[in-house]
Fold these 4 entries.
Entry 1:
Amino acid sequence: MHRWANRETGWPTDTVMEKRYIEFFDGYRQAYGLADFEHPEAYTDPDSGKKKPVYRWNFEKLTEQVYNSHLKGELSIGIQPCNENKEVKFGVIDIDPKEYDDFDKKFFIDIIQQYDLPLIPVESKSGGLHLCIFMNSFTDAKSVKSFLSNLLPLFKLKPDCEIFPKQTQLTKDSETGQLRPGQFINLPYFGEERKALNVDGTKFTLDQFIKVISANLVTKERLKEITEGIENKSMEGVDEEFIEGPPCLAAISKIANQENFDGKDRFMYNYHVMVKMKYPDSWEQKVMNAPVKYFSGIHANAWDKKFLGQKVKSWNRSSKGYTCTESPLSEHCKKGICVKKKFGVLSGSKGSYPVLTNLKKIDLDPEPEYEFDVTKPDGIGTATVHCRSVEHLNDQRKRRNAISKAAGFPPPLIKGDEEQIVLEALYSTQKVVHPPIGTSPKEKLHDVLHAKINGPRATSDAAFKTGSVLIENDIAFFKFDKFFDKLKSKDWKYNEGKTGRMMQVTYKDCEIEFLEQKRYPSKKEGEYYSSTKNIIKINIKSFEEVPIHHTKLKHKTEIM
């Protein structure tokens, strides 16, 4: 990467440097992420002794002042790279190794240099690595994400390695109609931390980093050129029958004869899928000859004619397609390239089911919700689908409607055994995540209820009827419908019945009751005004003792 070369003169002034930093790390500006070390829920990791922040969204505009506070080391921020127009100025491959002590950053730097990639390695907050690419202008997010996805096999990274932008299109909340910011990536150069690396492993100063970015800006056209160059190089020495097939099979065919190769079953099955389309009249013979052609030694001998004949007979009845999410195909997957191949993953796909991945079980109380990614028909773009319950997720028709709403296309209806395969593959990618601090239903309910109980007191019958709180002997009385209206203004997702049940369960020790009516006392002893309908009764002192535990976010992957 010769363009990383240091220079001794011509560095920009601090003001220009900061403006260039903001220009390069531009994105969604209506909110920004925070790594809040001062939050009450921040904690110290007992193993490392390091203080762990709470990761959360701050729904305020991202200004120059906020950027500058980050650069000064005062406020650690993150950003959603994708803006409202589905465009990005930068993208990131986020590498978080399982074992940081053995993490070899030089390996990634060497790959970048070997292929002359316009990527700049930057140390992440956790001690991993961000491989950053910067565009010369705002570019459609799908193209950048697709480019980075196709690089994963070069770095021996699995398909589930995080790539930012996570979302290539910001979706709207179904209840409020407001844009959901998605997930953010922590920015580099937080004070003296998270610096970019030179080819020799030394760290760039901020002004050097700005110069390096300027020298490595790329166009959308350049992304295509680099991708084609890598693909051409990867196809060297590959049998011509793979030219129009999935890139993963081409790559595997070059290593299938190695003694330690452990993927012959999956290779043979997916090879049969390809040749069945390419050679409809002679595919059986192609399959019968494949072990001798692509395997060696015990690998070839294990697939004797009798055993292989049984497989062919079974596959002749099969209508299933490529198993893209299974090893070893997943390690060599280049879906953005594969979808353009004549016999790739979308060949004859009019009736094929889209790939569902990255299932997140959002650990809400009282009932978890779910999100997953669906690959769009172009094989590049993805959409995030939201399901409000496990029943919603597991019901094919409800899930189909959710996919259609989020991604703009309806997947086909599939039979029971195929449906089971789809669900098993999706559940195998499941991760449990927690909502941002203060946004779980219980937390939101408690906050609104606390504000209500400690809000305006009813000093008249009219005030009571319009929602003010009546206090009698440490017991609070107030109208349920007015309280529910306040909840709905806070993006509350549950109906009145479910809300009432949640309150009964959560505050069962607070003498909570749902009264049909309550009369406001007159100034004259023993006299009352006309009844006010649908009243909540709750003990104030008991309410103040209810333990509502806010969720700790321990990693940026838990940011929703």
Entry 2:
Amino acid sequence: MSASREKKQRQNDPNQGLSQKQRKELEEQKAAKHKAILYTVIGIVVAALVVVLLVWHSGFFQSRTTAVSVGGRDYSPADVEYYYRSLVQYEYYQTYAFDPQSDLRTQYVDANQTQSYHDKFLQTTLETLTEVAAVENAAEAEGFTLTQEELDHVAASVNTMKENASSNGYTYATYLKAVFGPYMTPSRYETCMKRAALVNSYTTKISDSFAVSDEEIQTYYEAHAAELDSYDYRYLFISGTAPSGTDSEGNTVEATEEEKAAALAAAKVKADELVSKVSAADDRSAAFAELAPDYVAESSRASYESDPDYSLRTGTSGSSLSSYSTYGSWLTDADRKAGDVEVIEGSGGYYVVLFLDRYLDETPTADIRHILIKAELTQEDDAATSDVDESAVPTQEALDAAKAEAEDLLAQWESGERTAESFGALAEAHSDDTGSNTNGGLYEAVYDGQMFAGFNDWIFNDEHTQGDTGLIENTQSGQQGWHVIYFQSWNDPKWTISVRNTLLNDQLTAWVNGLTEGLEVVEGSGLSYVGRAGLPDQPT
């Protein structure tokens, strides 16, 4: 090394002049400082990671990812889960075919396990969202918005959800997550509610613009008469099942194939015998009723003996009969005549069916308003009374109080304007019927047999005119109390309304299909967060 370079190095050496011990101490200080810096950096990274994980498990990132895009609209996992979980809950209470608290990915629609319930519900949800997006776009293009009244209704629904949460001991946010999934938040829920209200309101507006002519209704009827007509008939079932036996040790012994065949053949002989006797009678319906007790199972004989019309079915719609694969098609055959009687094989035996009549039921439906005053339940259940839940049975005093309130409301109406509107105002203020107390107590197109017996009899046993009123007691479990009924008007027959609704729905479906045509569903990363497990235990 040159002298000048060595001199320069010495000048640049900050440790120049230090002893070996001093140099060692200095190096140790540097190493400790570097170590401290390193630990600080690691601490910052770990802390950041903890925050990220906490945020991740809170659903913050997931809720802000896009689950699906349709028609230029992005929907988050919470948006999709809103429809997904609503569908799951609806299907569960309709079928009870799966366990909503368990992972739906491991539960299958079919025995061959070709489709999980999760896949089924997700597919339907995406189809629903496609329609939602299409209607949203159409409403936006028209400048359609919710009215203040509709916004108020959304707010009321949100408040109801808050009350449900509170009454069940949950915070509002926790309750929403329990019902609609881990990514649902109060603000997101309100958005979902407003979206649903907008779609419903705009769809209703469009639907109200559709019309169906009398000619279209008649044309539809002629093409579907077998389904729309009503049928009167008698029937009974003659079992051909061979009973099981027991061996010497008391074990159950199933019938042999020979015994099963013999029992089925014997049932056929009995069925043919009944048909022969009924066919020979002048009044086949009366003969069927008289002979029936001798041909049914011993356990059913008393019912047929005590009630001659136990075998009688009247006013059965053809659409209902279509689900009876055994004798439904025979009854609805266009060539069927009154008095036709037939033996029809069923599962484990034979039906004997007597055709009585086929007709188009022109009984009008009715538009009515009502106020339900339920009797208060103040009793505590008596544990010693195991067969009766006394807490669900109002006292006579409570029933009398309900009647007095109903009478008072009727008197208020009679002393006022005596209009449908004034009755509706009383219904909204006082009725305990949650199905009608937000629309003036109105039920439209009520058909014969739809309501409980007393209510139904009041409507259809008298020739009412607009403004007729009545007081009816409700003795049904959970509904005990009194009704104030207002007769508003007669309406079209049930079949006419059914056909009109079918044709209007066809028009609406065509409109929606037109909107969704060409719309592409683009799945985003957030879709994987939807329905990851079954529904949690839900607060009620």
Entry 3:
Amino acid sequence: MGLLRTFAFDPKTLAFLTETVYHIATKKARVSKNKKLRENLPLFVQLGNRNGATQEEETVIYHSTRSHAHTADSAQAVLTGLAPDGGLYWPEKLPEFDVAACLAGDTYFMAEKILTALLPDIPNMDQLVRRAYSGKFQTEDLTPTVQAGPFTVLELFRGPTSAFKDVALCMLPQLLTAAKTEKGIAEDIRILTATSGDTGKAALEGFKDVPGIRICVFYPHGGVSQVQRAQMVTQEGNNVAVCAVYGNFDDAQTGVKNIFTTCRDKELPFALSSANSINIGRLAPQIMYYFRSYRDLLDAGKIQMGDKVNFSVPTGNFGDILAGYFAKLLGLPVGKLICASNANNVLTDFIRTGTYDRMRPLLKTTSPSMDILVSSNLERLLYLLSGDTKLVSELMGKLNKEGSYTVPAQLLEKIQAEFTAYYCDDARAEEIMGRVYKEKGYLCDPHTASGWAAAEDYIAETGDHNAMVVLSTASPYKFPVAVLTAIGGDTSGTEFEQMDRLSAITGVPVPKNLSSLQGKEEKHTGVIEKAAMPEYVLNLS
């Protein structure tokens, strides 16, 4: 039985869900570490767990978004990535979760508790979290927040590759290797990943030289920034492969999915998995930073426990914003989730109209990580809010064959109750980057600018003045031409000269992981047609 067959998600049910997941009464000792949080708990939080079950006693079964027949435990879901029918794994029922206790701990504690709840078949999660993150981020809290004028900016680019993907892709190799051991799998795992820019480097760095795993990254030829390309083609490691694909990101992503389909019934000397957000092991770690930012707002006195917080999320594949909704389902008081697109506004149109139409030109923008027309993770939301695997399967079939689909009016109403959407073209992004730097003293990249624009538009349209968090998904130094143009700087020279010039103007240091790319040897320079991707993977040594 799917989640929506247990919960109808009308207002009364949502209230009940919120009440039951906050089972504080049985966990007072854990909460007592943070007196401020305990004192600010609203009455419904203090009511406690009604059924007496503990998180540790629960199990989480995943099934395909396209069929209840394809099930897996959490370790199997992480290992396989994609369900046999092409669907995405989603839990049949969410576990009970102690939100206040989670918020009372540090960032590592939050990550451990969230991942333990969702992936209970993977043992020693506390050790895995420490191993994934310790010493790899610029700050101990991993994802700090900064106040920039009216908005709280959640900086997700303080990791080893200067992109938000680091939070998940430092963790995923630990989850995969632990799941592999737990299931007694002897053969190697081959990780396949399509990237619009940031996932590739983060995945390569995360899986570099991990025993028993080989990773292959495909990116659209000419479809990433110069810095993003340099990060990938210079990647070191004995188990990494990088190849450009003629076409756009959707071509690369479709090619990866086709490999899974093509190889499903073949006898291979390795197992296939994915590092894209279609893998629940990639999506789940992203939930943590929604909790982290909420805790920061509590500590700063900007909200009281139980207050709703809105999040504006630059969105391409719909994974990052879906993690925010996952956080809400676990009990975090999330208000509106604002989907921010660039000029490739397929998601904005969908959330506004209910029609998803990929049959449009893919525009190259200054925010290439959002240059996407097929947002794979949206499938999980369609299932979650409909509870109908048959419907989801039909919609995905239409998208594949006809290039578009329209959801029923009732489903659209549920989507719009939780999400809204806006888009920002390059000219608007340039204006915002320049204005935010000039007026607020904050330097942001084009993706973050789209999130800022969406936040402004949402407030102007609704008058909703709940606390607003804008997710900053990449370092401005990954897009120096766009940022220099916005602040009136000289854009001549190489990207490394541009980074140095940007730093000299703003006083913001260039991340070492980016400055160190200068002069590095290019090791991965191949370019292939999409049709050649399966052969390329099968022939990797």
Entry 4:
Amino acid sequence: MINFKEEIINILNENIEGLNKDEIERMVEIPPDYKMGDFAFPVFSLAKIYRKNPAIIAEELAKKIESKYFAKIENKNAYLNFFIDKDILAEEVLKETIDKKENFGKSTIGRGKNVCVEYSSTNIAKPFHIGHIRSTVIGDSIKRIYQFLGYNTIAINHLGDYGTQFGMLIYAYKKWGDKKKIEENPIDELLKLYVKVNTLAEEDKEVKEECRYWFKELENQNPEAVEIWKWFKEVSLKEFNRVYKMLDIEFDSYNGESFYSDKMPALIEDLRNRNILEESQGAEVINLDEYDLPPAIVVKSDGTTIYLTRDLAAAKYRHENYKPFRSIYVVGSQQSLHFKQLKAALKKAGFDWYDEIIHVAFGMVSLEDGTLSTRKGKVVYLEDVLNRAIEKVREILDQREEKTSRKIENKEELAEIVGIGAIKFQELFNQRIKDYVFNWDKTLSFEGESGPYVQYVYARISSLLEKGEFSLDKKFDFSLLQGQEEVDILRNLYNFTDVVIDAHNKFEPYIITRYIVELAKNFNKFYTQRPILVDDELTKNTRLLLCYSVKNVIRQGLDLLGIKAPEKM
């Protein structure tokens, strides 16, 4: 497609003194309302160069500039507003649709670049709870966005599968564990053991020492300890993978903390050789005063390592083995200091690739009433939330069947697609850094800004295309799409790739979520204002082509969010 923004930059570069192309590019804006143009350029910065009032400069430039791609270029409040020619816009978007089909909007800007995305990172033997949804869903969406733009992505689930808690669990299992019970209900039973041994260890020093002993035995590769630990991982992952399957989320690597345990001695020795480790009360630390950060502890006074040590080893391993353009960590905002220390420690150590480390932080999610009916007790399991969403959608579909006296095909599958999609959509509708309160009614609404609403629009378009016997082989007349409703859609479609790139630059899936809601709303306006299945074949085919393009982009948008698009609802 024609790059209209590039055209504007070239035009302005030819007609403006004192600014280079890069400066002009940074200044070109997309107005919040199409009434203000498709693009806008503020001229305030030119006042010093031309020694004139900005409004006068804008007026003079508006009269001077000409381009076949723009129907008009007007001056308004010291802005140059550019309005794309409707005929050219329609032709560009719809020819691209015919050419690219389902791949409309895809880009290759990331070709040849590897990107590591670490997300979810559940803890072995602990619940996969509602708090994990943010990292899991945001991370998966970021991975999908990067893939869409041509990057080679490596999805990493950095499992919490190491540390003193495993010494406690091994001791507890040997003392009170029931293998059969654990295999039947792994997480609940292991959590009970963990709570029990924790309480006891606080009161009994001998128990505490026994727990430390078993973790040390695990570190020393005691066969019994290793076997029990591996089994804990196996039964936990079985549980976790059931939830990941429901969410349609996959990983390329499950290398967790334990994977780096044998890589830390070499890392520590390397840091010593670089002369950046300092002694502090028996511990070895990296002083980060020059970065206004507290010291990074690498080796504790008892000779053991901490989470940061393992993250340093992981960063080094990923750099050497994946050679990433970016190494993205989707981890809660509470860990911001940790990642500042990680990055600063790498920089001070002389690793010139430290800048590839990117912490994508996010806020907290809470339940509106603070309660959720669950068999799990105090912990709200993510699986229970997903199942409840499916159940609620099933109830809605049952009511619809009763009201219309029409049986819904594949009702169970549809309830799952819509229910889980609704949870994901609600999660990704908010800026990631903001805390938000989960609301059932809003999440599952088939109207307004929700997942079911967008999915319903998609299904409606699928039905229209089927009824209209749409085919790309038919004849079209792009000039027939001149109505405001049609132009608004064409503008939406044209901006799709830029929207995805913006989401990629800012690590913000919500940009895509808001975009497809706007596109769905604009389609509904078009649907109510313009009859589509009309008698005139050329008009019908052309309007159906617009529908087809909208369908492809909604499907692509939902896929970038990790949400399925049902053909019927």
